[in-house]
Write a structure and sequence with these properties.
By secondary structure, the chain is α+β, with helices and mostly antiparallel strands. The chain has two domains: 155 residues, Ribosomal Protein S5, domain 2 (2-Layer Sandwich); 109 residues, GHMP kinase, C-terminal domain (Alpha-Beta Plaits, 2-Layer Sandwich), CATH 3.30.70.890. It is 31% helix and 29% strand. It contains nine helices and ten strands. The strands form two sheets. Strands 1, 2, 3, 4, 5 and 6 form a six-stranded mixed sheet that branches. A four-stranded antiparallel sheet has the order 8-9-7-10, covered by helices on one side. Helix 1 packs parallel to helix 2 and helix 2 crosses helix 3. The radius of gyration is 18 Å and the shape is globular. The two termini are 29 Å apart. The mean pLDDT is 97.
Length: 278
């Protein structure tokens, strides 16, 4: 079989409401997941063992053995008793520790690719259940379409995403990693109310990201990114996940592309990616 390819679509939390810290150390939250049309690129071919090669602008420092891609591959191989292996090649195009689910999206893409490469034929629900223990964002990333997340983010509720899909999107990151655990630990513990779950775009626009304030305290450059995006004519600007990536959604491509050009000129050290919500 020739090589197969999967995109590890960048995750965007259009809204993220943290409700409470649980006794097990995790947090109950409500979030509206959405996904860009672009992300890391994963290729795979049959092999006699599971191997991973990582390339791309954000490959430095990543392990090719202790990696979510390898852990996801071994989980799929074990669950479905697959004798074959796979040589996986990851082109790392998304910044690490950036709030857009890079590692989770890579793990999800691995499961989708191996499901095809090994001829397993598993449903998304099986893969979501299998990979959930590896990371709270992974089940949503398996679907990689807009969905509401509850609990720790693994309880998924389908949405009618017609008012979200196809909107022009711009992602901006100051290229400063932010540890998810540190941001959650800096959250003030105040429950500011629930996120709606019936009208996705209105819920996103009227929602918030409860991790944005603690993330800005830990990484003040996030505030500079948000301020720059606020002046671009976007219809929604917010931080994604635990940061430091921020996003803006636009009415049209012309305005989005002008915003990207302006930011790239003013802050060439920042990472930007223009895409669309899928």
């Amino acid at each position: 079989m020739s090589a197969l390819t999967e995109t590890a679509y960048a995750k965007v939390n259009l809204a993220l409401h943290v409700r409470r810290k649980r006794s097990d150390g995790y947090h109950d939250l409500e979030t509206l997941f959405a996904f860009a049309e672009d992300g890391d690129i994963l290729d795979g071919v049959l092999s006699d063992s599971i191997r991973l090669t990582i390339t791309g602008p954000f490959a430095d420092g990543l392990s090719d053995t202790d990696n979510l891609v390898v852990r996801a591959a071994k989980a799929v191989q074990g669950r479905f008793a697959v004798a074959a292996g796979a040589h996986l090649s990851l082109n790392k195009l998304l910044p690490v520790a950036s709030g857009i689910g890079g590692g989770s999206a890579d793990a999800a893409a691995t499961a989708r690719l191996l499901n095809r490469l090994w001829g397993i034929g598993a449903e998304d629900g099986e893969l979501e259940q299998l990979l959930g223990p590896l990371g709270a964002d992974i089940p949503a990333c398996v679907r990689s379409h807009s969905v509401y997340g509850g609990g720790t983010g693994t309880t998924l509720i389908p949405v009618d995403d017609r008012d979200i899909r196809g909107r022009p999107l711009l992602l901006v990151n100051p290229l400063l990693p932010v540890a998810t655990s540190a941001v959650f630990n800096a959250w003030d513990g105040i429950d500011r109310g629930e996120l709606g779950s019936s009208m996705p775009w209105l819920d996103a626009a009227s929602g918030r990201n409860d991790l944005q304030t603690p993330a800005v305290r830990l990484c003040p450059d996030i505030a500079a990114v948000l301020a720059m995006l606020d002046g671009t004519g976007a219809i929604l600007t917010r931080m994604s996940g635990s940061g430091a990536t921020c996003f803006s959604i636009f009415e049209d491509v012309v305005t989005r592309d002008a915003a990207q050009a302006r930011i790239a000129s003013a802050c060439p050290q920042w990472w930007t990616m223009a895409s669309f919500l899928r």
